[in-house]
Design goal:
Layout: H1 2-73, E1 77-79, H2 86-92, H3 98-105, H4 107-110, E2 122-124, H5 128-136, H6 142-148, H7 150-166, H8 181-187, E3 197-199, E4 216-218, E5 225-227, E6 232-239, E7 245-251, E8 256-265, E9 272-273, E10 278-282, E11 293-298, E12 306-307, H9 309-315
Amino acid sequence: MPAKGKHRRPKSLSLSRGFAVAGTGGAALALPLIGAAGAHAAGAPAVAPAVAPVVAAQVPVALQATPAAAVQAAPSVYTVVPGDYLSKIAAERHLSGGWEQLYADNREAVGGNPSLIHPGLKLDLGGAGEASEAEAAPEADAKPAAQAEPNPARKQAEKPARAQREAPAEAPAEAPAEAPAAPQSAAAFVSPVSGGISTQYKVAGSMWSSGYHTGVDFIAGSGTSVKAVGAGTVVSAGWSGSYGNEVVIRHADGKYSQYAHLSQLSVSSGQSVTAGQSIGLSGSTGNSTGPHLHFEIRTSPSYGSDMDPIAYLRSKGASL
């Protein structure tokens, strides 16, 4: 029995030692893991530099974009060229708030009418619209600025043509300079009809109550347009006994022209007429032997104040 006891004790000791060894072994196993972790931790700085440049490369891009946007957002000045208008500038520059905001920012320079801007005028664009252009561009550095320049140059080359098309709009202001030509045509006298003369002035004859012809007879078929020989005012238009349908016009010099035997009247008393204006149609009304125009120039509207009609018309520039 004692021998067995001795035998068991060593086993007990070996078992406890086994636990101790196991514990020690566990500790030994733990140490390599800690060492490995330490080794990894110690090796981390060597890996970090490889990752760091990637992060560092990304950061500058963001940093570069921010200054570019800041530069583009800064207030800028635009010089108006021919053909520009506020809505066009706002649309081309992508300005926030449109032409209304552009006008509000530059009201003092533009004035009370937003439609009136002149070439050379400086406009403050604010900068909000420029930022959107910078964001839309793929590159944030000098390239967008270089690309933006050709477009205004091309537009400026096209705008002079627009300016030439728009320039004639101001021409009407000079039109009154040609107005004096109108009074000349208004003052000129014309023949009442295009036909020749069949009976001259002051031809004697018993057929006329005065003993002579008080006017001239122009050849005119029935229905021929009769024209006022000069500008004036109609003092009478209607039936007049032996003259049939007649028109009497008072002219600016105080003389009167008479048109008799008309088949139709196209003016009325008190109406203003111009030289060459149609006043009726020729005919053979009243005491007449056939269609013709009896024409007189008088010093008063009444019969018996006649004067040489041909000499009068020629003195007024009429071609007979």
